[in-house]
Amino acid sequence: MEKVKRFQVSSKVIWGSSIALAILASIPKLFDGDSTPGDIIINSSITLLFSVFIWYYNMYSLPKFSSQRTHQSLFNWKLLLSVVMGIVVMVILVIGHQELFQISKMDAPIMFELRGVLINLIVYMFLHLLFQNYQTQQMGVELERTKAVNLGAQYELLKQQVNPHFLFNSLNTLKSMVDIQDPQSSDFILKLSDFYRFTLESRKLDLIPLKEELQILDSYVYLLKARFEDGFVLENKVDQRQYDSAVPPFTLQLLIENCIKHNVVSLDKPLHIKLYTEGDFLVIENQIQLKRGVLSTGVGLDNINQRFSHLIHREIEIEKNETTFKVKIPMTYDYCNN
Fold it and tell me: Where are its TM segments located (predicted)?
């Protein structure tokens, strides 16, 4: 699993802001006639060191910036601890500068403490807002990654949807043809082999040219014709100028399989399916002659729709009236396979 990126604040931001605060804190000294250059430098030094300390202290304790998640409010016990630590550090810095530079006269300690509390609050709130923004971005990234993984897994499952019943029925048809010594048995075996060769070659592809999809369909239809004979009729009127467009593999096979699943297919009542193009849509149309006792759940069409939404960001269209059922699938010309 990919490690969550650690929250960081640039050292340029830390030192740049600390220097800026030190300069701002020393501006009043420039207009004080009693101040010496040494007073200004010492005042700036205390502010600079304090600001740097507060930055790093809050970074590593408020909260500990890692892959952990926090839902704490802006004001909590850590802020109080930070303020107390700031007061202690400011006292140490003031006393340390007094002892190091042997200064007898400095600003009142309370002025340094008030300055320290103000700097502490500014740094604390700025860091807190930065971290909240970081967490929001990380949650967005994780959500998108999870969504992509789920869609990828779902699509891999969808690509395996070559119905096992089809293989079972095809083998039964082949057995019957062999039993009666049908001269087309060899052609049937070749077409069945071609169909599953296409399956193996295309199963790892997201999109394939419509021309190849129609080749897969040709083998599939041959196998259906061997099974249903004249009970199944496919009329292919696809414009050849659309052959360079692309669709997800086995889309047509799944749609025709869906037609057979829900409609009567027999010599007495042949199932007619039309395949043609309409603008940038490929249309599969069949007359409605529903089987008794077969309820449509819509799962098959919903799965196909998810494939198109995931791969080309467009959805299929369904048109239905009392006599005909149409599924219009969008085609794309801008595609590549990974």
Answer: 12-28, 40-58, 79-98, 110-131
Residue 200 is encoded by which pair of tokens? Answer: 């193996």
Residue 336 lies in a domain: no
CATH of the domain at 168: 3.30.565
Find the domain containing 93 and state its range: 11-158
| Token output for 70 | 């926090």
Instruction: Report the C-alpha gap between 62 and 82 in whole angstroms.
Output: 8
- Residue 169 and residue 153 share a domain: no
The share of the chain scoring above pLDDT 70, in percent, equals: 71
Listing DSSP states for 164-231 in one string gives HHHHHHHHHHHHHHHHTT-TTHHHHHHHHHHHHHHHHHHTT-S-EEHHHHHHHHHHHHHHHHHHHGGG
Tens digit of each residue's pLDDT (9 = 90 or more) over 264-302: 999 999 999 999 998 889 999 999 998 887 666 667 788
Q: Are residues 111 and 31 in the same domain?
A: yes
How many folded domains does the chain comprise? 2
The tens digit of pLDDT for each residue in 109-138 reads 666 677 777 777 777 777 777 777 877 887
